[in-house]
Specification:
Number of helices: 4
Shape: elongated
Largest sheet: none
Structural class: mainly alpha
Helix content: 40-55%
Radius of gyration: 18 Å
Oligomer: single chain
Order of helices and strands: HHHH
Strand content: under 5%
Mean pLDDT: 79
Number of strands: 0
Distance between the termini: 35 Å
C-alpha cells in the first residue's frame, strides 16, 4: 500500500513524459531568466509547450488514462489504454483531436464511475 492509500494515482507514460519535459523546460527557462539569456528562456518555454503536446499525443496513442478511477489491474504505469483508439467519454483531449474519435466518444454512455449518484432526497 502506498502513502496515499489504496487508490489509482493515474501514473501513466503520458503523464510521466509530460511532467519530465515540463520540469526540464521550467529549469531551462529559469536558468535563462537568471542568466539574462533570451535563447535559453525561449528554449525553456518551447520545452514546456512541447510537454503539453507530447502528453496529449501519448494520451491519444493509448499511453494515458481515461478520466476517473481504473481497475486495479491497470494501475501499473506501463499498461496501455486500449479504449483510447475510439476516444474517451468526457475527455477534452479526445474531443480536441476531432473527427471519428470525438464522435465515437460522444456516442458511448458515461462510465459508472463518472455518473453521479441519484439524489434520494434524504
Amino acid at each position: 500500500m502506498s502513502a496515499h492509500g489504496h487508490v489509482d494515482m493515474g501514473h501513466t507514460v503520458a503523464g510521466w513524459t509530460g511532467t519530465a519535459l515540463a520540469v526540464l523546460g521550467s529549469a531551462v527557462a529559469g536558468a535563462g531568466l537568471c542568466l539574462s539569456s533570451g535563447p535559453a528562456l525561449w528554449l525553456g518555454l518551447a520545452l514546456v509547450a512541447a510537454a503539453g503536446l507530447a502528453t496529449w499525443l501519448l494520451h491519444l496513442a493509448g499511453w494515458g488514462k481515461p478520466s476517473g478511477p481504473r481497475p486495479e489491474a491497470e494501475w501499473d504505469w506501463r499498461v496501455r489504454d486500449t479504449a483510447a483508439h475510439g476516444g474517451h467519454t468526457d475527455c477534452l483531449g479526445c474531443r480536441m483531436s476531432g473527427g471519428r474519435r470525438a464522435a465515437a466518444a460522444a456516442g458511448r454512455p458515461r462510465s459508472a464511475a463518472l455518473t453521479p449518484a441519484p439524489d434520494t432526497g434524504a
